[in-house]
Amino acid sequence: MTRVMHRHMKHSAIAAAAVAVLLAGTANGLAQESVAVRATMTKGPLPVDDPNAAAWNSAPQAQFPMSPQVHWQNRIQEATVKDLKVRALNDGQNVAVLLEYADPTEDPADAAALEFMVGDKKAHFAHGQPMAQVEGGPVNIWFWRNKDGKGVDMSAKGFGTLKTQSHQDVTAKGAYANGTWKVIFSRAMTTEHPAEDMQLKPGEFINIAFAVWDGRKDGAGDLVEKGSQKAVSSWWYFRAEAPPDYSGYIYAALAMGLALAFQFVLIRKLKKGQSA
Amino acid sequence: MGTLTKPIILLVVIYLLLKFVVPNIPGSAPLPSSLIFLYLMLTIAGIVIFYTMSGESKDAFWGPIQRFLTGENIGALQTARYAVLILFPLLVGWQTYGSTAVSDAPPAENRTIHPAPPGEYTGLSNPVAKTPENIMQGKGFYAAFCSPCHGGNFDGKGPAARGFNPPPANFSDPTTIAMLQESYLFWRIKKGGVGLPIEGMPWKSAMPRWEVELPDEWIWKIILGEYDGAHQSPRTWE
């Protein structure tokens, strides 16, 4: 392959330029931001309380850009958190998600949240607000705030409908060090409330979005980021990696066997027909 | 093998036509491989029907194929025969693997960027006169409401744009507002991302539904300011 490429490049400058464009394209592809969080399959129990556990290193890190929330009122024109690093693990039963982001100060009102679509209907990333031409579904929000020190399991379907669920399944734990928040959310992959909770099947891509509030106060003592005034992301993908699946190879081997048998029978028939 | 030469040439010519000539016809586009496959299958079916119309042509058509498959008196083609007999099961296996193996990639997204607007938003003309004052006022509204995402330079690179996917439209790009009528922009600004039909994936769009915050007249002025600032003209049918 390389040798072929070299030969081409000797042959003409145009080919060399074409290869350069191709390589540049590949490099751009690599530099692109993540589109999916992949929860690596690991042996339990998951490190749901320890953001520095070695197990997190086995999970690839995804990075997502954040925007100040300007989609609906009340807006904010600039938010503290610009990027979010995300890792995730699953042990087949539970899932844990580790958020990591820079925040210059630790404040009681520092908070973060994950958002998921619930069920098969698409939901708008802004709290599942109604869409004009598409029937939307609800969202499931996992919320953590520094001063609460726990995870809150919430539901919403449209603005002003955000509510804490009657059944709480989410745990959360935050740890602040060196200007960085590390927040872990965890939950069982499935719950008994599929109408309100996100359900995670191994190998299946679902939608996830993020929100972060910097709990700092302005000169007058008011929170700068609160409620809808936060850093947000659009929908991205989330997948709990499944145990390795070799069924594709088995089906391919079966199909090859069938094709061979078909050839064998066909040629035998043809030969018989010719000699008769 | 003389009888088979013509059908093979025909197949190759049709493949080359579909693959390289059709996409270059003005207003055309590259054909998906599944469609090319379908056309080639139809061609093969046609060839088979043609050659099996009479007993004579049927034998002339199938004879060489039979001889090739059974390997009798084909001499130097024996190697090609073995190659076909080995490659066919491999190809079947490969196809099966490709269609049954679990993909590791996120679902492909074919989002339509400019889907058709509802009927009531087609062909509306801007009721606001295109005067320097109105354009300037529109640019002021644009700076206040639109520029955080769409950018002070109308390039889609405002300070709030980075987290949004799909990214805010770049109005200086000739494939955005320059291809659209003012009426279309009016719909998109008024109804926002949530107003899109399903092919526009409304659940992903961060475009606000400005009808709840801005009067229609402001929206029309924003449209004037937007075209002027981005150095584009609306599409017209005259």
Topology:
The complex is a heterodimer of chains A (about 280) and B (about 240).
Chain A: H1 2-11, H2 13-31, E1 36-41, E2 62-65, E3 67-68, E4 83-90, E5 94-102, E6 111-117, E7 139-145, E8 150-156, E9 163-164, E10 171-177, E11 180-188, E12 205-213, E13 231-232, E14 236-240, H3 247-275
Parallel strand pairs in A: 1-4, 1-14
Antiparallel strand pairs in A: 2-4, 3-13, 4-5, 5-11, 6-7, 6-12, 7-8, 8-9, 10-11, 12-13, 12-14
Helix pairs in contact in A: 1-2
Chain B: H1 2-21, H2 33-51, H3 55-70, H4 78-100, H5 132-150, H6 182-191, H7 216-229
Helix pairs in contact in B: 1-2, 5-7, 6-7
Can you walk through the features of this model?
The complex is a heterodimer of chains A (276) and B (238). Chain A has 276 residues and is of the alpha+beta class. Chain A is built from 3 helices and 14 strands. In chain A, strands 1, 2, 3, 4, 5, 6, 7, 8, 9, 10, 11, 12, 13 and 14 form a 14-stranded mixed sheet that branches. In chain A, α1 (2-11) packs across α2 (13-31). Chain B is mainly α and 238 residues long. Chain B has 2 domains: 2-99, no CATH class; 119-229, Orthogonal Bundle (Cytochrome Bc1 Complex, Chain D, domain 2). The interface between A and B is large, with 59 and 44 residues.
